[in-house]
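User: two proteins, same treatment. go.

Assistant:
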Amino acid sequence: MQYPKIFVFILLICVSCKSGDEYAAKEVEYTRLLEETRTTYAPDRRTDRVAIEAVTRNNSLILRGYTTVPEVYRLLSDRIREDRGVVDSITLLTPGQTNDAYGLVRVSVANIRTEPGHSQELTSQALMGTPVQVLDQQDGWFFIRTPDRYLAWLEKGALTRLDRDAISAWFDGDLSTCVPAQSAVMSEPDGGRIVSEIVAGNILRRTGEERGRFTEVYLPDGRHGWVATADLAPYESLSKPVKVATDAILETAFAQVGKPYLWGGTSTKAMDCSGFTKTAYYLNGYVIPRDASQQVHAGIEVPLDDNFSQLQRGDLLFFGNHRADGSERITHVGFYLQNGRFLHAGADNDYITENSLREGDPDYAEHRRTSLLRARRLTENTAGVVPVDQAFRSLYTKSSSR
């Protein structure tokens, strides 16, 4: 029996509507699943990403995007295989086994940005000799992971790309670190031209040659030159600390007083609040989380009271406010000193300085006192306090993939 063309047309519309309704419902289902997955596996997009969306196209549901979490990739791939009509367009961003999947920062201070492009927000910095994972690239920029697990974009000129074996060989070499806030690698031991400036915490490789008061070094990109021997210390003095030495950390912190505030800064040139605390710890052997809202989860909690009676010199103070739902929003961090005083890099001061939390003191910071929320004590073997060597090696060893 033949049906009139109009009935065939109506039938096709009904089938299409039914199919469209089915995929619309499936899109809602997967959107909810993806949100739950993000909350569970990547609640902080600064350290892990589930950047995946569900979209309907031509009677197909497509899951497209990327994740940095292998477990998420496996779970979603298994789910999609069991669900006919769903297209898998998910990319797993993790470093490969070869093909220059890692790198070393080759400039004294590399600027890391939230998105690729020089006009994008400066979100952090990395120092010469720091290892990174290379996860992706776009228009001359690399999407990287740093030893504090931070995810951001680095311009290609600031990085020397290496495979796992080459980066491992670099760290097995005779390394030194720059000690003063600023020094230079020169083409000749008696002067010559500047090969590169260097700053505290930069990592260089000794060639074994010394002339008078100078030591010859290699930079991560193979350039070589001469540095005043007094400006260098063995890498092990930085990378393998015995314990968290509060007095030494505060000595390093006080050496930064008067330096300018810089949003995203994490070097001895200029720092933001958490870059200041992070740098003081790094130069004394420990990698701690990048931002104040991450550092507040490191170490152990210290109770706060009006007299600061439970605080010890060197504890971290955290400031902020409360969101509409009552949750804390941490926006600032500094070092507690004693007698209600603290040391911090604040945008309100424009430079690193001391302030008081006690009303009546000439440098009393009322807005800091009213916004003080938490205090933490960072010691060895506590959450988020990782020796430099351990943090670096976990980035490029075979056990580094989650």
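Protein 2:
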Amino acid sequence: MVDFAIKGNNILTPAGLQKAVVVLKNGLISDVLKDLPPTIDVEVIDIYDKVLMPGVIDPHVHINEPGRTDWEGFDTATRAAISGGLTTLVDMPLNSSPVTTSAAAFDQKLAATAGQLHTNCGFWGGLVPGNTGEIEKLIAKGVLGFKAFLTHSGIDDFPNVNEADLRKAMPIIAKHGLPLLVHCELSTDEILATGDVRSYQNYLSSRPAEWEDKAISLLIRLCEEYNCRTHIVHLSSASSIEPIAKAKQNGLPLTVETAQHYLFFNAETIQDGQTQFKCAPPIREKENNDQLWVALRDGTIDFVATDHSPAPPDLKLLQRGDFMKAWGGIASLQLALPVLWTAARQRGFSITDIARWLSEKPAQLTGLSHQKGQIAIGYDADLIVWDPLNSFTVSEELLQHKHKMTPYLHQELYGVVEQTYLGGLKVFENGTISQLNAGKLITPFMK
């Protein structure tokens, strides 16, 4: 029995945008047709000129539960997700307490999702010094891969690894074919922040691009040595684009993401004291960020992920404007699609590009490309309907995040998400969440 069908003039299939009818049955896409034959008697939803696209997959989200639910939590994060068309998240292993660096901690993480998982969610395990013995235990529990830092993470119980730690872990991770995600900054004592702590330029200088470049060079070398799937998170340094491109040309299993804020904002427009813009690596100059767009266009950068990293407003020190002591992280989960589309449309990119960066390529990193990220027969009916021509202004009232502080407040953004479907079930429509607790846990064992 077919559940229903969605027809429209802008259905995003692997062949591109086209007029089509998508037939949904038992939570899956059962067919994609040019027209619905009269032999199929089914309810048809006509979206006319709106876009039907695979749901957004964000593999870089800090949900912070258990232990720091006052920062975000599964309930608010996944409400924000479906409101923004995000049908699958992957939670980072730090900022929760305990951090997800052991099988026992992972069990606590899974237990914390009960009754408040409103979109699909998978999990990265954490790699820290001394937990090599937990890697295969975490894999057996169902993590999708591992995350490590090469500089201080901001959380003392999630310390950074060094080259020796990576050499112990990468052969194990490579044996299981999972990705290692790395925050690439190698700090030194050569450049220290001095001067006005409210100065954005001062903060930018304190985390130079050379830190990223040095770390990425190390990761490329180890990726080649161990043939371990290696993923560079939130690339901000354009000077690393060329060595990344060469590594990919040489066939290394290397992938790269950047974040919306490196594409939407530029250092030149951030005023002193505006700590809502603080993140690490920092938002760099326009000339640098323009090169990130070029690398997205040619595929050197694979996709875009939010690095949603919220915190209570008092930790951002907005009144003091102290960039050196404020929490580094940008809240943007619900805005992933419209932020990227607003910036991309100004540069001549297409909706097909958006789907590749937000759906198709993230599905590949997470091992879900056989069932998510495309509108094709047999794929999960995780879908969104959105209007690329309509705009809205970001307000606190609109956001489902626990805390409403974000540098995107009051920005006019294009791309209004009108409907979100999880497994063929409508969970969001026109500003209203219509179904809660429809999310599923995502593991590599899914069929």
